[in-house]
Amino acid sequence: MAATTTARKQRSRSEASMTSAEGSTASAEGSTASDTAGVIKAYVWSPDGNVAEVDSLDHIQRAFADPDTRLWIDLEDASQGTLESIAGCLELHHLIVEDIVERNQRAKVEYTDETMHLVLFALQYDGELMTAELDIVLGERFLLTSHPPAWRPTETPNIRRNGVGHFLDHGVDHMLWAVVDAAIDGYFPVFDRLGDEIDDLQDDVLRRPSSRIVERVFQVRRDLLTIRHAVSPEREVFNQLTNRENPLIHPDRIIYFRDVYDHLIRLTDELDSFREQVGTTLDAYLSTVNNNLSEVMKRLTAVTAVLAGAGAVAGIFGMSEAGLALSLTDPRFWVVTIAILVGAVAGFAYFRRIGWI
């Protein structure tokens, strides 16, 4: 009986251990699946014009397998596992995945395995400049966008107003234009706010120059430099897109990208103007400070000259006629005192007339 009871207990422990191991395995698999899923939002366009929104890799893979569909896959703050899974579905080159994961690229356009990888930047300004890197991959039937939560293409005015289907009806290259156009159009409010900030700085420099204003001037200069590092390469990117043949972009779409290129030219010119204004503002600050210092030095010089004359007369009188100092009955005391007062008043009047006091 004791042996039988012991065997039953050992068998129960073994079964419990197996159950626990199976539960741990399932939990690990679930965790891995969750890590791989990330934040996915995909739009599948069908030939009948319907657009279905999906959020799973299985649906994306099935949609991509259908040669008649068009896809826009939007990834927000996606993990490396998500990117690798999507890359497997879309058969992307591993170098594209590496570039997206690193998120430390400059604006560029690259072509790999019949796909185009485009890197742009979205800008936001609310007293402080924020940049968001946008990685965009264009294929024959798909568009992949990856971005941080700070900027969402689906919430931009043009896409929200017209709907994803409106752009996918014309092809994934038209969807690409909608995304990049929304990103570049977002620069204009940023430039407007920076222009207002520069105008305020110029007014403050003339009214009340201070070290705080200098800090703001240098902060604006740093922001303008950051923007230039984003805009200048983007201008070259769109110059390539509009002046070279691209099998992934229909010739009828080139005019849309040329419009974006024109916007970047305008923004570059405005950026140069801002940099000149900031430089002028800094020069105005230094000039104002120097002028104020000059005024102070003039006043000090005038006061010193007036007091020096009076002090010289009083010193000579005090050393040579010490016995008569403050002798109210001696006329020489009053002569010297009146001479000091007349000299001081004359000096004050002269410096007052030339504007030093």
Features:
357 residues; alpha+beta; Beta Polymerase, domain 2; 11 helices; 66% helix
How would you describe this protein?
The structure is a single chain. The chain is an alpha+beta fold and 357 residues long. Among the domains are: 1-35; 38-163, CorA soluble domain-like (Beta Polymerase, domain 2); 294-353. The protein is built from eleven helices and seven strands. The protein has helices at residues 2-37, 57-65, 80-90, 94-102, 157-162, 164-168, 172-185, 187-207, 211-243, 254-320, 331-353, and strands at 40-45, 51-54, 70-76, 108-112, 115-125, 129-138, 142-147. A seven-stranded mixed β-sheet has the order 2-1-3-7-6-5-4, with helices on both faces. Helix 2 (57-65) packs parallel to helix 3, helix 8 runs parallel beside helix 10 (254-320) and helix 10 packs antiparallel against helix 11. The longest helix is centred in the last third of the chain and has 67 residues, at 254-320. The protein is rod-shaped, with a radius of gyration of 38 Å. Residues 1-37 have low confidence and may be disordered.
